[in-house]
TrEMBL record:
This is AraC-like DNA-binding protein. Residues 56-153 form the HTH araC/xylS-type domain. Pfam families: HTH_18. The keyword NADP does not apply. PROSITE patterns: HTH_ARAC_FAMILY_2.
Amino acid sequence: MSFFGGTSNRKLSTMKFMSDLAQAASAVNAAAMNASCVRTGGTRALNGLRTRAGVELAIAQIHASPAGDLSVAALAARACLSMWRFTVIFKGLTGESPHRYVTRVRVGHAQHLLRQGVTPVDAAQASGFYDQSHLSRSMKASCGMSPKQFQQHHTGDTSALFSSLSSASYT
């Protein structure tokens, strides 16, 4: 007779052991993630480098996935900082608030897609805007053009611009 109590129970016990092992591994990973955000003693310079590195990591995340969850709370958690401290350090590094910076990066990403001929609806979705009107308001505020006007201006398609001018009355 085996340690697990028989051959039929061996498979069940092995499966339970593997399940327990997987749970333990995920608990260790979660503890490691939490431990990386725990403040330890050290010099002020090292803490400054760690916080700056956390904010730089968040900035890299903004550029890597502009359509992702880029709320201040999510970015601050990624940097292992409070939302207030994250915002202060972020603004010191970039000169802009996190929200304004994210919006500017998203508008730039949408403009890149519009130059490639992607529709404004798809560009808005791929850039992380809630809908096309959100993209339109943001683009008008940043560059003075709607997404469609921007696309027509930068792809060389001026037929819609000239048709709107010819239909206007000049009396």
